[in-house]
Amino acid sequence: MKIKALNKPLGCLLLFLTTQIGFNSRVAQAQIKVAPATKTKNICPDQLAAAVDEVINRPQYSRVRWGILVQPLYKGQNLYSRDAQKYFTPASNTKLLTTAAALQQLGANFRIRTSVYQDGNNVVRVVGRGDPSFSDTQLVALARQLKAKGITQIRRLIADDSYFQGDIVHPSWEWEDVYSDYGAPVNSLIVNQNVFSINLIPQAVGQPLQVAWTDLNEARFWQIINQSVTVEEKQPAFINVTRELSANVLRIQGQLAAKADPLLVKLPVVDPNNYFLRRFRTALIGEKIRLGETGVVSSSVNQQELAFVESPLLSDLVMETNQNSNNLYAEALLRAIALPTSRAIASQPKKPDQTTVNAALEVLKTTLTQLGVNPTGYALVDGSGLSRHNLISPEALVQVLQAMAKTPSSSVYRASLPIAGKSGTLKTRFQNTPAEGIVHAKTGTVTGVVSLSGYVNSSKYEPLVFSIIVNQSEQKAKALREGVDEIVVLLTQLQRC
Q1: What domains can be seen in the chain, in order of their start residue?
Q2: Which of 14, 218, 363, 438 is most buried, with most CB under 10 Å away?
Q3: What phi and psi, each to the nearest 5 degrees, are found at residue 216?
Q4: What is d(CA 151, CA 492) in angstroms, rounded to the nearest whole number?
Q5: SS3 240
Q6: What's the predicted TM-score (pTM) here?
Q7: What pLDDT, in 10s, does the model give residues 371-399?
Q8: What are phi and psi of 368, to 5 degrees?
Q9: CA–CA–CA angle 83, 86, 90 (5° rounding)
Q10: How confident is residue 341, by pLDDT bands cut at 50, 70 and 90?
Q11: In terms of C-beta density within 10 A (0-12 exposed, 13-18 middle, 19 or more buried), how is residue 334 classed?
């Protein structure tokens, strides 16, 4: 992910939301196809160190900081270790800790409930509990339940956002991330992953691109400065959409070729609570329920529940979190373990004025410590890994993977990890290599950081667990992944000697 320096005057900063056409906007998670070297000969365990060192000591990695630990899954012996107890910026490998704690605390069958309450005098209140999967489909389901109860008019609709306390975006996230869809705000009332979108459509050559809103309700909240242009067919395409910090102004620059397919640009919502209310109003109108005024409150007492919907099973939410490295899901799951009603461990109640994230991080640490993970092996500030303030050692990641393999949730946890060459963020990596299909691992990428941690199941050797983190590099992620992937292929070629 491209990180911009923050030592510039804020008024001068323009933050890129979407870059060149075809570029995946989830830059923090996007993975580039890499074909690592595939040596055909097998290697013995006592040859592994020399083989790994040959990779990381190459001239192109001379200024790179490596953290590596490889162990048998069910034994504590080191097959390879390099700075394994030191801290590294983990990127999305942070999600391995978040999802492990969520499964332990909540269980694979846990669901997140969103409720609508009757407060009297024709006032209806919707209470969200941070379901990251909640969408327009669930809003329609709630509206239909209200219609079935005979409700045809609502005098006032209130959005209750009191379930999560604290900032809706972490203060240590980079500005570029906050204004990108993969850094969408996290609150109690999430809908459509707190993202809206526009389509950019080519016109006649020389004309600006047409801006088509997928949600017309959002159009009135933005000023568009359209500096794009339609160019002749077969011309290169590139689009930048930037947002000014001082106002809701979107500036569209770049070009698309005539007759090219429309380009979908996803943008994070600015005010998620009111976005939720606008989307709910649309759903209610669809069911012919008249709605008066709307508002947002931060605390209230639940009365009669009129309607509710529940999220998919936690196992499905964890799958989305790790397979697609979904930051919003990870942040929502972290916050879910903070609430007293969801805790399965004995702990102190949340302190007054303590944010939900900080309370959740305390529960996470207690949970992982009970599993046998060294609490000094990591220091987290968020649940997704988007913050550059997270620190984790390769040893801690290996301990988490080993510990989860011994829990009742082991199969759910492992299934949530991308499979080399087959699924998720590893779908286009390791294809046609010995690692394809037998490595289950979580990816991570931010500028100067590449991480990969997971399991190796080889028929020639016992199951392995590994963590590889690369930090402090000016090189592109593709170049770093080539080294990481070559090391993983070496692990798949181990045999008993």
Answers
A1: 1-21+112-311 (3.50.80.20), 31-108+314-492 (3.40.710.10)
A2: 363
A3: -65, -25
A4: 61
A5: strand
A6: 0.89
A7: 999 999 999 999 999 999 999 999 999 99
A8: -70, -35
A9: 105
A10: low
A11: buried
